[in-house]
Amino acid sequence: xRSRNPLKYVLLYLSLVLIATLLNGCWDRREIExxxxxxxxxxxxxxxxxTQSNKDQxxxxxxxxxxxxxxxxxxxQIAVPGRIPLGPGEGGTGGGGGTKTVWxxxxxxxxxxxxxxxxxQKVAHPLFFGHLRVIVLSEAIAKKGVDNINEYFRRNPExxxxxxxxxxxxxxxxIMRVSPELERVPTIYLLNIMDESLRMGKFPNDFIxxxxxxxxxxxxxxxxxxxxLSPGSTINLSGLAYFRSEHLVGTTNSLEITLFMGIRxxxxxxxxxxxxIPQTSxxxxxxxxxxxxxxKVIMVNGKPEIRVKIAxxxxxxxxxxxKFTLNDDLIxxxxxxxxxxxxxxxxxxxxxxxxxxxxxxxFGEYVRxxxxxxxxxxxxxxxxxxxxxxNLSVQMEVKVHIRRVGxxxx
Length: 410
Hints:
Radius of gyration: 28 Å
Number of helices: 13
Number of strands: 13
Distance between the termini: 107 Å
Number of domains: 2
């Protein structure tokens, strides 16, 4: 009589159990129609009337937590299912007319999580941030500090590090409610502005993840795009918003964006500037097509000194008159004038950030990498470098080359 092997049956039963677990692959599925897809978030300080009438509180019991930003007003854009264009064939009219593609909701809260939970009370489906692309902070909230705001987004696994975070001169709520004429989805309108700015070399590729990384560095501060809402629902990219630690301390104009990129050597170049023709009242327009920079750290009398070499190359795009012909001597004069103007502008931007103790260029990281002994002995902390940066010696050397002048001038 053949004997039975109990181990054989045990292995068979275990195999059946393991195979059965593979049949439940969709047990935790969630249909996309059952999610509230958040496309954009705007964060403001709550108005006084909202502070006194905060009746949406849903998560906090007893005393509210004390934060540097105070009570927050959070606005979200939620995609309306079936109304978002999926391709070129579904374009249609912009946000100024037709069916709305997003649903805008707002609520107050003592933290971002608290405000979003209050918004969740108004939405049937759970908020989903996997499609979040834009976060807008008002200038007022950024000046108070963004530490607790960044804390929430860093912890949320659904938030991508490739999202854009903006600082706006107006209230962020107004940006979330704007209805652009050329786009059906307001968030896509903002994304297109940034995509074109990157393509044309008018803004650095500085996503929220890079902002967090720079803010966490001991020798560098973070920057964000600075936007403002103009009459007629037009959003302008007005400059850079630069920080000291977690606080907004200043902004630049649009031309200073390209100056920042020039010092950092970020490609591609897209700046344009007018140059006065010597001994006349006429001008030419010069457009940069290429730029490169080299940053070097040297020690002078026991102190670090930064030396920056910048090379600019571009074309003459326009002349205000045809009464003169461009020759080699005149081109050299233009190059010299451009060099002097550019060097002065670079130095003014550096001094502007030094007054705010905001090293947005990352000079401190060069010092920390090239002179580690000095850093460990004299600096050590981010706060110490902020004070050191205020009096840091930075020497600029700029070279400008005009490559093309145009067929008519030749």
